[in-house]
Amino acid sequence: MNDAPKTTIGTITVAEPVFSCRNVDVYYGDKHAIKNVNIDIGRKQVLAMIGPSGCGKSTFLRCLNRMNDTIVGARVEGNITLDGQDIHDKQQDVVQLRARVGMVFQKPNPFPKSIYENVAYGPRIHGLAANRGELDEIVNQSLRRAGLWEEVKDRLNQPGTSLSGGQQQRLCIARTIAVNPEVILMDEPCSALDPIATARIEDLIDELRESYAICIVTHSMQQAARVSQRTAYFHLGDLVEVGDTNLIFTNPQAKLTEDYITGRFG
Amino acid sequence: MSSTNRTAAETQALVTRSLARRYRAERRFRFYGLTAVLAGLVFVVFLFGTIFAQGLSVFQQSYVKIEVFYDPEIIDPAGTRNPDDLVTADYQALVRASLKARFPEIEGRRDLRELYGLVSSAASIELQQRITSDPSAIGTRETRWVLADDTVDMLIKGRVARNAPEDERRLSDQQVNWIAALERDGALALRFNRAFFSNGDSRDPEQAGVRGALIGSLLTLFITLVLSFPIGVGAAVYLEEFAPRNRLTDIIEVNINNLAAVPSIVFGLLGLAMFIGFFGLPRSAPLVGGFVLTLLTLPTIIIASRAALKAVPPSIREAALGMGASRLQMVAHHVLPLAVPGMLTGAIIGMARALGESAPLLMIGMVAFIVEVPQGVFDPATALPVQVFLWSDLPERGFIERTSGAIIVLLLFLLVMNATAVLLRNKFEKRW
Amino acid sequence: MTPSILIISLLLLSFIAYQLGKARSLTVVGGARGIRNLHSLPGHYGLLTALWCGLPALLVVLVWLAVQDQVLIALISAQLPPEVRSLGSDQFVLFLNDLRNVVAGNIPASQVSPATAAAAAEYLRLQGVARLALTALAFALGIVAMLVVRGRIRADLRARNSVERVLEGLLFLCSLVAVLTTIGIILSVVFEATRFFGIVPAQEFLFGTKWSPQMAIRADQVGSSGAFGAVPLFAGTLLISAIAMLVAVPIGLFSAIYLAEYAPSKVRSVVKPLLEVLAGVPTVVYGFFAVTTVGPLLRTAGESMGLSVAGESALAAGLVMGIMIIPFVSSLADDMITAVPQSLRDGAYALGATRSETIKQVVLRAALPGIVGGVLLAISRAIGETMIVVMAAGLAANLTANPLEAVTTVTVQIVTLLVGDQEFDSPKTLAAFALGLVLFIVTLVLNVIALYVVRKYREQYE
Fold this sequence. Notes:
The complex is a heterotrimer. Chain A is built from ten helices and eleven strands.
């Protein structure tokens, strides 16, 4: 394999992007994990990132809300702007950035608190509710939008860990939208769930697209095809191809993409 | 404005508004953490600082140089060289005579007594030993360095100010002048403190040494090691490799964990009631001390040994069993050799804990004033930490220094043991 | 033969048996060439013979040594002159004490009463007879067993299985020592404490507020004087432990948090072992530190603020005990904090929580059960700690909540009552065991709860 970054095939730009990433490189110590990635992320649409394991799609996702800051030895270079503002700028506060860019993880990770407190946690720390009534309303709305309200409305005081896996993941989504972010990052949100729970989350993603820009990393090409409008294919740290989901899956331009989609490796 | 229908900009504004307060809380929290760490470090420095400041000087001691004449008239007037007479002769008179010769101008009983008080009573014992081991020295002259009294020692080391008012120190003004005169002659100086390492306990600080306590500790530790290591390893091997999962082994497990947290003084009560009261073993003996400390350290050793056994990968066990080895052969030939470094580390840490332990030893009487150095595990003895306890209670200034000195010796031993354990672990630690 | 020589000889005999058994197994199959016909290795046959030869004989010796003193005393008591037997129980204990001292050679026989001297001589005579008999018995047992086993060695004797069963049994006995220790503790403490409660009623001991065991020397004062009310001791123990925890928990917890979550790994790798040094320092050193440094320091500080601080104040002892416990709390808290999965931290960070918000509201919340367990263990340690309080806390049983005054604790009183000359059987001595019983029960309960909580917590994140 050649170590030099390759040029991405397809259209990397969109109109009025929420995120705009140019020449992004990520290093873990000596390891060059992301190589010169350029991509825009559009508003009110779902971008799916696919690719074989270790291709850097999760790493790239974590750049967008600077979660890589928490990893010792990780270094991000290049230019990532959110609404035209550099997220690595000294003026940019990381707390505020994460309030604007929420994230849902691979394994559901509810806090060891009640269901209510899990959702209320974000609004509480950011001071989004002036009083208890407002907080109740935020929690109520967030749980509704996450499609969880009907299931948990009678047991808001029970621990979040008492829910099933799929419910826990929807609780984590509710927790994220309670902060009213502009972008939601999802790192393989369904990989720990059964098919039925997965289907519910996919429906939810489709609804949430009305209000948020969503970036989802997934292992499943079917899922990418079902939920996304744009798809980006990563391979060994390179962004190989990006474009309309329909086009990528029906008529991939790059040989690597085609091999992956047709199941020759992955 | 409804809290759920805010625009992104409104939310952002709210978040921004909260930031100053939250970062203040963040800094405060971080400051608490840093303060706690610093407080801990200050305690470490303060603790060791005071101990070393008080105790390092113990390795030197004030000695007085005297010209001694082994006067046959005093030692052996009859000239028979009868050993019994040589032992009981008045050696103190020899010391006094040489002091008197150095300060011929001093007259009067009170002044003379003050003069003689500058030298430790150990001096005459030293002369006695010199003569009884070599009677041919009688009639000769010799220059010797003998122990100075502890009050002199404290003055020389600056623990007592020379210019302090007379009633605030135990030496009179004229004694201080004599000391100065001796120092000018080079006849009073700090030299390496042999006595501290060669003597047992004593009521006189300048004669008190750690040898008795050190030997007592070593004898006790020897018994502890000989018993607790095999029993601990045996128990760990049984529980880890042989024990069926049943009620009894559950009880044993819970028991061991609880025993590790039982206060050490309770083990002392057990030793007193069982070993001394019931089995009639002698009080104050290192043997009983070793028994009690064995029971005390067993849980530590068992827990460490089990951890070492757990760290041996199952694949090795399966390989041995697959070759047709019996369980015992598998353990003895394959598992134990790999686990031994971990077990040794645990044993050393257990021994270090036993060496520092004093409460249970108080219970079984290893707390007596014992001058003789113990010769065996049945002799009455004390232990190093108990010696620290005993000395710390004594009022003489010299004993504060002795106590700190004994602590330094104790800490050195612990340091060596723990360093050995760490080295052993680093050298043999394998990641499978 | 003296017992130690006897034991060494028996070990030698077992060695001989090993060689005999091994040689015999080879002879049975006709030399080294026939080894493959043997069921087990020749060494196993040797071991089997040695075990049979040595174990029963050693067992007999050890059992006798354990009970010898009791048996001999019983024998002698039966034939004592009537004037000795009519002695009161206190006097009789003294008599036995003298007897033992004469036997051990601590006191020359000329310095005790003729009756004692005679009894001692009788004791020594019986001991001599017993030793002779024991030696003969042990050797007979060993040799007979050796010969019998040797005679039974055949090619198909399953020696390895038998040997391994015995060795496994020995290993099992090793693991039983821990249980026996607990039983021993319970037996010895409960037995003596029961005798104490026979003299002083339990409710008076547990709820009485006046403690002055010295007054109880005269028998008629016992119980009626109310001298054994242990409440001041419990209160003093709690006061000092509380001060210790006030020092240890915040400092230990916060330093664990700082080192685990904030400090760069280089700082952590230096500072953590430095703090752990505090855990390796013997408690007697802390006691000395409290007496010579912290006590006087507090006194001077108190005087400058116009407070009167007792020379042996609860504050000094508690402070120093707290310092001792810091590393205990911090290393336990560190374990618990690092056991909290990273995913929970990520969840909080992704919502935009600051580091301290994440720690306070997520990490500590998750680690809480573990930390509570650790603190319970620390409390149990503080309650059972002896040397610091013996050296730095007083003997005066004051019932007070003022940390500047001197208080005494359960462990201090146990030591005071049992160190030095003691009259066995006096309520004063027995009181120490009653206190020991209370101490044992309280710490045991704390430990059981704490270990349970901690184990449940660990299982949750494994």
